Amino acid sequence: MAPGPTPARAEHAPAGRREIGPQVALLAALPDITVTRHLCHAGPRDRPFPEQHRQASLAVVLGGSFCYRCRDRTHALVAGSVLLGEAEEAFVCSHEHGVGDVCLSLALAEPLLAAAASSEAAPGRLFAAPALAPRPRISALARALAGAAESHAADATRAPEVEALALALVAAVFGELALQTGSPRRADRTPSASDRGRAIAAAQFLTARSAEPLLLKDVAAHVGLSPFHFLRLFRAVFGVTPHQYLVHARVEQAAARLLETEVPVTELAFAVGFGDLSNFVRTFHRLVGLSPGRYRQHHRIRKIRQVRR
């Protein structure tokens, strides 16, 4: 069942058939981004009914299947498919081919969504098509976002990761829309001196405040750009996203402190900006090749040997 609309009530269905709406769970609520999970148990015996998107809807199917009728065409959605709907747009969802589905729904503030659409130069309407076929990159981003959003409930410092994944998912969806519908896309260009200056200023800002739960929109505002323009520019200059750069900066600071101080690993993880010890250990090991404890021990042993020589 598509996310967003208010479910109709079951008592209006004929005998033996129900009108059933999804169960909605809030995973993360940032200032301009909301992530929810929609679980539907409807099946072939349940009556489909007309609905309307209250606001622009972008959802990725994580499991199950259903049919989505919008703009006079029925789309079959399975795991990895993307459902798109514009505000006040009418639609009907049905489950004649199976029971239930799970969707990850992403709601963005209107200015942010408009910036995403304009970044891909989609003409005419917000979404050039009401649905997209499964694509591995989009599906992978959606599942990563679902995991980060679930963790955000217990660890507020994951907000930058949620924001980065959400914006990357939206950008990927608009990029795929442009490819599938033949809409013109902005050609990537070589960064200018001004672009490089803004990217460097942003990198310095990220490094100086890396222990803080920085949101991409705040860094973009610091250099006078929209979030999506900034995301594209930063990646073009440095080859990584701002969030990846921020994580690297945190790990670099952690590595320095491991050798220069006696601060326990748990305390150090929080000091450099990680809100969860296990996430810090996993990330440090992935980027450095050793756990924080082994890194500290290994390099201190080398220093002792050098001193003795």
Automatic annotation (TrEMBL):
* Domain called HTH araC/xylS-type: residue spans: 200-298
Q: Which Pfam families match?
A: AraC_binding (PF02311), HTH_18 (PF12833)
Q: Which SMART domains match?
A: HTH_ARAC
What are the record keywords, sorted? Answer: DNA-binding, Transcription, Transcription regulation
Q: Which InterPro entries match?
A: AraC-bd, AraC_XylS_family_regulators, Homeodomain-like_sf, HTH_AraC, Tscrpt_reg_AraC-type_HTH
Gene3D superfamilies with a match to the protein in the record: Homeodomain-like
Identification of the protein by name: AraC family transcriptional regulator
Species the sequence originates in: Nannocystis pusilla
